[in-house]
């Protein structure tokens, strides 16, 4: 039997570090192991950000340590990464993800094995260059863009508080009582979205939200004095937060330990712990410098760093000593015990409160309640009155809300205009957490990010609302919805120049195409009440795809042959051509332009004997998912086809030979005058339709088949 290798003697630098450290040798060794692993990962990948993980290692050590070991006591378990009542952790400065992967590895999460740490930032690995919730178990949200993560965390804290108020009982007060912990950096707090979200968090008194702010004074360009000299403590206190200051974590953790304990005791305010750190801690030539932020330290610098860090061996890469591994195994066991105790409590809760337990299970399993679509309104032509589609949206959201307690959200200070108030739903406020109406205030970007956090928490189908043009404010977070596969429902009203007098600052032109071009984003622009019912069925059914429901401000004329079932396919003929044989012209439109095309078809028939088909296409994405036979039955491709939408023409070329769209900004004026001026009156649509038919007649009837072209799949492997 071989003798175990002799323990390596400490270098002078390591001895000096241990001597100055106020804590146990094992604690310091654990922290330094985190630093060394993060540096190794970035070095092997030859890409990444080593500095923040090395500076934040002490914070991570406490967040992944049990209360009995002097840590935060954060509840989580690798045995069940999706445990409902786990304490959430968000790494808002996502570029520091080597830190999170190291901690998940030390805690036994299968997606972060040592081989995965060695595959950091490589194609197909479970350890991508920024945290991705769909890639790595133990990662809650995608936190590449700075400020998103801390804003998501506000949503998680709202979710926990609401669920606790709704489902906890006097005999089971802790079924849902999770806390949300965040590590963020200077960049997160510079982004405007974090200010929006944290202002709301303070107003709501989210006491179970604890943010550890890595105050390292470094950004990519250099010292934060270049552009960020505000008093963060005073700003957050003005938001209504408790702010605690820790001046040093390099030489001991007692102050941070005490601050976390104090934060946990504060139930009526979120807490920001402002922690002074040094980026790249331990690196002899790059500590405290921007040079350690976004590039590998270099092989020689990594070795020199390990020579200075107590417990590290410069001759070994990706090394976790037995005592360090044993320590984190003990912490993981404590998390498993917490999970087991909660499972026992929930089993008893299930016996005592079967209805509540059943509903929680359905919600966290992402199951749609039985009969949720049964009460969606159906429009009866000739009986029901015409209205704006935002009013039809209001009827739909109230119809489904009766059986969807998980439907929670609100508007960015436009509730009346967006028509998104759920009747009987009280406000979620500091003293009424059982309420399900969120008053986001004028905070569009944070609104979307908060909804992402609520969805990530589980058990919610969050919705939010504003004018379609202001999706531009929210676009960063909406993109994260799509990337993260979060089925957030976006209700966007005032969806064209048809909003009228507010003018071009409020009139969306490019926004529809911007959203449609985003992967995994479903955009629905309904033409009437039946199509709006389809929009809600589509949105609720798409659990892992966010949906934008676009609504008009102005009234739309009734459509005799609209169909909720047909609209579910993305496009269908709302007016069939008269007579036998193929139509002479196909007009394809969305929303408020569909009824205008119906009127134009009548003009074409009576004035020019042109037999026109009118196709309503509420959702391009769903139409493209249909089989080729159905798509050709609706849009043959070899018939002159004209798209009509009061929006940009881009994107319509694949469906039409000619486009009536908008290629300039709008203007202020009554909506019907604007529609006429921009060419969306029935007479102009008919005129352009005839012109298109005549154009191809002049070419001998040779109409290019829009369906006759190859479709390439370019992703390899």
Plain-language structure description:
By secondary structure, this protein is of the alpha/beta class. The protein is 40% helix and 12% strand. The protein contains 25 helices and 20 strands. The strands form 5 sheets. It has a 6-stranded parallel sheet with strand order 10-9-11-12-14-13, with helices on both faces. The chain has a 5-stranded parallel sheet with strand order 1-2-3-7-6, with helices on both faces. It has a 5-stranded mixed sheet with strand order 16-18-17-19-20, with helices on one face. Helix 2 (25-45) packs across helix 4, helix 6 (148-167) packs parallel to helix 8 (192-204) and helix 6 packs across helix 16. The longest helix has 31 residues, at 322-352. It is elongated.
Key attributes of the depicted protein:
717 residues, alpha/beta, six-stranded parallel sheet, five-stranded parallel sheet, 25 helices, 20 strands, elongated
Enumerate the spans where pLDDT stays under 50 for 5 or more consecutive residues: none
Give the % helix: 40-55%
Largest sheet: 6 strands, parallel
Q: Spatial order of the strands in the main sheet?
A: 10-9-11-12-14-13
Output the structural class.
alpha/beta
| Integer-rounded radius of gyration | 29 Å
Average pLDDT, rounded to a whole number, is 97
Q: Report how far the terminal alpha carbons are from each other.
A: 47 Å
Helical run tally:
25
Number of strand segments = 20
Shape descriptor? elongated
Query: How much beta, percentage-wise?
Result: 5-15%
């Amino acid at each position: 039997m071989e003798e175990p290798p002799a323990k390596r003697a400490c270098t002078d630098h390591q001895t000096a570090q241990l001597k100055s450290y106020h804590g146990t040798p094992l604690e310091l060794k654990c922290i330094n192991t985190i630093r060394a692993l993060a540096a190794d990962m970035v070095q092997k990948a030859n890409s990444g950000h080593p500095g923040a993980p090395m500076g934040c290692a002490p914070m991570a050590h406490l967040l992944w340590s049990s209360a009995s070991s002097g840590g935060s006591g954060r509840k989580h378990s690798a045995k069940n990464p999706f445990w409902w009542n786990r304490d959430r952790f968000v790494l808002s400065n996502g570029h520091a993800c080597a830190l999170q992967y190291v901690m998940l590895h030390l805690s036994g999460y299968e997606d972060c094995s040592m081989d995965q740490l060695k595959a950091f930032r490589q194609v197909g690995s479970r350890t991508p260059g920024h945290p991705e919730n769909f890639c790595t178990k133990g990662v809650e949200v995608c936190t590449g863009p700075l400020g998103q993560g801390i804003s998501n965390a506000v949503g998680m804290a709202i979710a926990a508080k609401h669920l606790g108020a709704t489902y906890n009982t006097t005999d089971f007060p802790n079924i849902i009582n999770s806390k949300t912990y965040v590590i963020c950096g200077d960049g997160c707090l510079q982004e405007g979205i974090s200010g929006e979200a944290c202002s709301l968090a303070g107003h709501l008194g989210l006491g179970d939200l604890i943010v550890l702010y890595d105050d390292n004074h470094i950004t990519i360009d250099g010292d934060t004095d270049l552009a960020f000299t505000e008093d963060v403590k005073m700003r957050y206190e003005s938001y209504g937060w408790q702010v605690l200051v820790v001046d040093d974590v390099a030489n001991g953790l007692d102050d941070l330990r005490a601050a976390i304990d104090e934060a946990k005791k504060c139930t009526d305010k979120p807490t920001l712990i402002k922690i002074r750190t040094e980026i790249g801690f331990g690196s002899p030539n790059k500590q405290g410098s921007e040079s350690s932020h976004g590039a590998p330290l270099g092989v020689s610098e990594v070795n020199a760093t390990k020579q200075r860090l107590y417990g590290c061996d410069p001759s070994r890469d990706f090394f976790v000593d037995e005592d360090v591994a044993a320590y984190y195994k003990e912490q993981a066991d404590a998390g498993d015990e917490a999970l087991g105790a909660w499972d026992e409590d929930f089993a008893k809760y299930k016996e005592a409160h079967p209805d509540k337990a059943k509903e929680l299970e359905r919600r966290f399993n992402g199951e749609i309640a039985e009969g949720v679509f049964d009460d969606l309104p159906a429009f009866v032509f000739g009986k029901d009155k015409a209205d704006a589609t935002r009013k039809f949206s209001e009827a739909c959201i109230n119809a489904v809300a009766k059986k969807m307690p998980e439907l929670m959200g609100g508007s960015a200070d436009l509730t009346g205009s967006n028509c998104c108030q759920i009747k009987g739903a009280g406000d979620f406020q500091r003293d009424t957490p059982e309420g399900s109406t969120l008053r986001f205030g004028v905070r569009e970007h944070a609104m979307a990010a908060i909804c992402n956090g609520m969805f990530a928490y589980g058990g919610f189908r969050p919705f939010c609302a504003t004018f379609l043009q202001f999706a531009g404010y929210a676009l960063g977070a909406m993109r994260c919805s799509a990337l993260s596969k979060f089925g957030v429902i976006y209700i966007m009203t005032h969806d064209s120049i048809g909003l009228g007098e507010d003018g071009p600052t409020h009139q969306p032109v490019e926004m529809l195409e911007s959203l449609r071009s985003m992967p995994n984003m479903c955009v629905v622009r309904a033409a009437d009440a039946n199509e709006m019912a389809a929009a809600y069925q589509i949105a609720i059914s798409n659990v892992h795809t966010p949906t934008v429901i676009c609504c008009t401000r102005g009234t739309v004329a009734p459509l005799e042959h609209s169909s909720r079932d047909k609209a579910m396919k993305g496009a269908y003929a709302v007016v069939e051509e008269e007579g036998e044989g193929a139509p002479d012209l196909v007009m394809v439109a969305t929303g408020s332009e569909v009824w205008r095309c119906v009127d134009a078809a009548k003009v074409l028939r009576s004035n020019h004997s042109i037999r026109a088909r009118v196709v309503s296409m509420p959702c391009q994405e769903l139409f493209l998912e249909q089989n080729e036979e159905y798509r050709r039955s609706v849009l043959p491709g070899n018939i002159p086809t004209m798209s009509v939408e009061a929006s940009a023409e881009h994107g319509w070329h694949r469906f039409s030979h000619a486009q009536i769209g908008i290629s300039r900004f709008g203007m202020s004026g009554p909506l019907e005058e604007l529609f006429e001026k921009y060419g969306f009156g029935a007479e102009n649509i008919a005129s352009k339709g005839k012109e298109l038919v005549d154009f191809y007649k002049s070419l001998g009837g040779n109409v290019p088949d829009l369906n006759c072209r190859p479709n390439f799949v370019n992703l390899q492997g």
